[in-house]
Every structure is written in structure tokens, then in C-alpha cells.
Specification:
It comes from Ambispora leptoticha. By secondary structure, the chain is mainly β. It contains three helices and 22 strands. The chain has one domain. It is 5% helix and 35% strand. A hairpin with a 6-residue loop joins strand 9 and strand 10.
Length: 313
């Protein structure tokens, strides 16, 4: 999906899943509407009129996320917070150019295993969800042990204006990445698939391994929130989102990021001027994770994953 210069796509085997739309007034989603603030002072907002869905192609298939912000620059960086089924690994993705980055998993609390995103069958329960998911809470600070952000059967990205912060070693976080059990109800009936986190022992990037925090949001209010829900094809057909009798291609051609309208330029007094590449800042660059949208753009495209500053939580 692309909304006012912010983008989010779901990919399987490097192919983008086709998106389907349903007006938000037809169905109350677990996440609420996607939206973009059109000004730094948040007095103008563009709410998406539709819920966005993708069809799960196959149980057990891994998926990845591609995302970006056309307003991201070195002087005006954006940090992105990712939630999948309400799970989060306490890292940010930093965007310092109008390119797209990708994530295919989270890092566990000890930062020695990568948990790949994988579609799986939903774990249903008749018990109260707060009892079932008590082991999935983070420091037992979740209200009723429910996900703090995002929703079940959904991928949610929060985009924030960012600024540079001091580098320091972060205290270890206490959390688990677990498949969430869902209470059987009329509202949850269509959520037949959820995300399993397939862990593999891997060496993380240096910033994650060393617990270094180099950027953080300017404030707690995101400038954009994007949601994509994933469902079985038969559910989308039953709801009339896909025309019955036509089995569509669940994949779509990759769309050029540069073709989408960016946000209006942020005014000079709203820019973040203290973000610079300096010798005392550690950036982790992985050019393989970036999609450069326009060959005419003569910038250094760089994507950085940084650890969330626990002091600011």
C-alpha cells in the first residue's frame, strides 16, 4: 500500500502480494484505519478510506516486508517501528533516503537468533486470551496482556520523525516472540492465519549485537501508521472483496516507488538538524536490503536498524 508517500508491501519469495480493498465502514478491523499526518503539527490528517488485505498464498511460507517514506533524507530521517500480530522486537529501522528497506524477521531478546516471519494456522482457544497469552507479555506491562500496538492477523508500521541520540549499550530486554492464541468469536472468525516466528541462530548486525542506540523518535506521535491484514482467499471471496468465480493472481507486479506522490516538504523550522554522519556514530549499512527507486537520485542510500532506547519507554 502507498499512502501520501509512505509505503508498505508484503512479499513472498521476493514477489509482492496483491492487495485488496474494503471500505472501513464495512468492517471494523483490529488495527483501525491507516493514516498520514499531512503537517508536522498534526492538525491535518489523511485517513485511508479502506482496509487493505493480502491473501495468504500457502501455509508455512515465509514472508518479508518492504517499506519506505519518500520524505526520508539524511537531514530528516524517519524511524520505523514494526509490529506483526502485536509482536515487536524493540528495534527501529532508520530511513535516511527515499528508498525502500526490507525486513524478513525479528531478533530475539538475547539477540543471538533471528525469528523469520512465517504464515501459519491460527491457534484458537475458548479460554480468556489474557490467560493464554500471559507468557507473551513483555515485563508483564501489557494491559490485559494484549498487544500494545497493531492487531492479530495484521502487520502494522509506525513512522516517526527522528533525531540523533547518544550511543550507549542498552540493557537487555525481556520479551518472547510467540505465536498468539486467539479467542474464538464472531469478530475473529476470519483470522484463520497468524504469524509464526521461525527462529534460527544467526549473528546480528553490530548495532543490534552491541545494543547501540543512535536514533529515536522526536516524540511519541507517529507521522504515519500503515496496516495490512492477511486472510485466506476464501474469506476475501465470501466477503465480496474478491469477485466470486474468479481466482485472481495473488501476486502483483512490483510498483516503482517513485511513481507515488510524496508528502509536502516539511518546513525549515520543522526539520531535524542534529542528525549527521559523524565519526562517533555507528551506522550499519546493508545495500542488499534497499530498493533504489530512481536512478536519477544522486544520494547515498542507507538503511539502519537501531535499538529502541529503553530510557524513553
Amino acid at each position: 500500500m502507498f499512502l501520501d508517500g509512505f509505503s508498505l508491501e508484503v512479499l513472498v519469495n521476493s514477489s509482492t502480494l496483491q492487495e485488496y480493498r474494503e471500505p472501513v465502514y464495512n468492517y471494523k478491523s483490529s488495527t483501525g484505519s491507516s493514516y498520514v499526518h499531512l503537517s508536522k503539527k498534526f492538525e491535518r490528517i489523511n485517513n485511508s478510506p479502506d482496509n487493505i488485505y493480502v491473501a495468504v498464498p500457502e501455509i508455512g511460507s515465509r514472508f518479508s516486508l518492504r517499506f519506505g517514506a519518500t520524505i526520508a533524507t539524511l537531514a530528516n530521517p524517519i524511524v520505523v517501528e514494526i509490529f506483526v500480530d502485536g509482536n515487536h522486537d524493540f528495534t527501529y529501522d532508520c530511513l535516511v533516503a527515499p528508498a525502500q528497506a526490507e525486513r524478513d524477521g525479528f531478533w530475539n531478546a538475547t539477540r543471538d537468533k533471528k525469528a523469520y516471519f512465517k504464515f501459519s494456522k491460527t491457534l484458537w482457544t475458548n479460554d480468556e486470551i489474557d490467560k493464554i497469552n500471559s507468557s507473551n507479555s513483555i515485563d508483564n506491562n501489557y494491559t490485559n496482556n494484549l498487544p500494545r500496538k497493531g492487531g492479530i492477523g495484521a502487520i502494522t508500521l509506525f513512522f516517526y520523525l527522528a533525531r540523533r541520540t547518544r550511543i550507549k549499550n542498552e540493557a537487555p530486554f525481556k520479551f518472547t516472540l510467540e505465536k498468539v492464541a486467539i479467542t474464538e468469536s464472531k469478530e475473529n472468525k476470519g483470522i484463520e492465519f497468524s504469524t509464526e516466528f521461525e527462529e534460527r541462530s544467526e549473528s546480528p548486525p553490530p548495532d543490534i549485537k552491541d545494543g547501540k542506540c543512535t536514533m529515536k523518535p522526536v516524540d511519541n506521535s507517529p507521522i504515519a501508521v500503515l496496516n495490512i491484514h492477511y486472510r485466506p482467499m476464501n474469506w476475501l471471496i465470501a466477503r465480496g472483496i474478491i469477485e466470486p468465480g474468479i481466482y485472481p493472481n495473488i501476486f502483483t507486479d512490483n510498483v516503482d516507488f517513485k511513481d507515488f506522490r510524496p508528502l509536502p516538504s516539511i518546513k525549515k523550522d520543522d526539520t531535524v538538524n542534529d542528525v549527521k554522519l559523524e565519526d562517533d556514530v555507528v551506522f550499519v549499512t546493508n545495500s542488499n536490503n534497499l530498493t533504489v527507486p530512481n536512478k536519477k537520485v544522486k544520494q547515498k542510500y542507507q538503511e539502519t536498524i537501531v535499538i529502541l532506547d529503553s530510557d524513553d519507554e
